[in-house]
Task: structure prediction
Amino acid sequence: MSDGRLPPRRRWLGWTIGTLITVLILAVGWVAIRGIGAVTDLQQVATSASQLKTAIASRDLEKAETVSQKIEHHAASAHSLTSDPVWQAFGVLPWIGPNFRAVSEISAIADDVASDALAPVLETATGLDLSSLGLSAGAIDLTPFAAAEAPLSDAATTLSSAETRAQRIDAEATLPALAEAVDELRTAVTQAATVVGSLHGAASLLPPMLGAEAPRNYVIAMQNNAESRSDGGIIGAIALIHAEGGRITLAQQASTRDFPALETPLPVSESTTALFEDGPGRHLQNITSIPDFAEAAPLIATRWQERFGTAVDGVIAVDAVLASHLLDATGPVAVGPFTADGDNVVSLLLSEIYAAVPDPAAQDEIFAQAAAGMLGAAFSTADPQKLLGALADAAGDDRIRIWSAHEDEQVFLASTTLGGILPSDGDAGSHVGVLINDTTGGKMDYYADAEITTATGVCRGEPTTQVRVTWTNDAPPDAATALPAYVTADGAYGVPAGSTRTLIAIYGPEGATASRIDRDGAEESVQTALLGTRTAVQHEVILAPGESTTITVEFQGEGAGDRLTRVSHTPLVREVAIDRQDIRCTP
Result:
């Protein structure tokens, strides 16, 4: 007869299942409680971060210190709550795992930034008065910058690492609300990394580059985005500035007409020759077609030295859109018969002036006046904090390029976006790029628009990166007769008035090769070149007013297929629309 008890094996199985269920319930309760606590802490971090920005902007450093301690406490708490073994175990589960991993990584990033970046930045803010930027009687006091270099270096390193880690979070696998939080984190960390990186660069480079040890001379090349070149635009004006003891003065201005085409071109790289023949080595205006500013800038310096005999310590290239950022900080300036401000300066310099002042020589004079006026205003009437913000915004849009003839300075510049060199692939992801160069001979790119779409994945068994560029001529239908001949080029270079002819080069990740190329679904002849280990494919495109074309290049092999693929591109008059889509493999 049975005594009513389960067999030992079944009892053991029941106990085991019961124990597992109990553990699971406890674990779920554990992570729920810790999750609520972590989210609350992260919300406090976000709120306090906003308060910190306000405190620093108002120079209330005592409040900033108090708020930063609060941020550090809540960030450390969130990190602790989401880094225990139970939380990590939930992170490996299917479906829900990515959400746990994302919260854990967000908390870890916040903790690192709070403990290793905030303190150095606040230390710097104490010694470096951003409300005046060290300006005194038109000169910059360089002493505080040298003292700030070490703490800013630590902060910049932390933020650079945080930016890479934030990009690595697989937000697409998380819940919508969490994905939005990840995007906000990425934006905030990238903005902080850009600003602190710029401050670190300033602290490292400003003292020597502004003549703390010896006088310096720099060529300023001003690019006109209405006639695109790889780095921004054709060189439309050029000048020399002198820096000594922190004081900057405009030493000399020149016109591109002072630099006639060379009978014997300066030597350029094989990749430059493959894409643009010897034009950049022969014509000053075309040097910025070279996509690597470390190659382009020495040619600009050489042309100035050969023409005027002045030794050059470096080259700074800026584009016309930078003027809008500067005038937001300085206020309006007189530009010939016009008054330019942050709202109208781009349309004034890149469009309206050609109708109002048809003589090219008179245009050059107005461009020179604009450059002198903005430079003078920047170091006399500009609000220093607004000036710093304007320069940081322009640098973030790749509208400033700097090269130094001094090797140690150039090594540092080359490691930043200011250096304008081709990007390097690595842990932070792969890079692709789009280079735009006008060959219409006019100023029609004021009406140009570009959209860039990337997609990564696996096609035909190979890691694949697709880059799609849509290029549009948005000139008015009657551009041939409504626009000045100087703008349309009036057919002088074989392009019908109102139409545009553009070289569009797309380069892929390092080591990848172009496996498929088409324009509007059809194949056509292209130019190819190697930019280092990157394959570049260049189309020549002619568009009438209102027309668009779409070029698609598919790269496969080493470096392709990286989910974190980033896009570099020629800065245009208008913002370039960049999108990432799911990959659609072509047959």
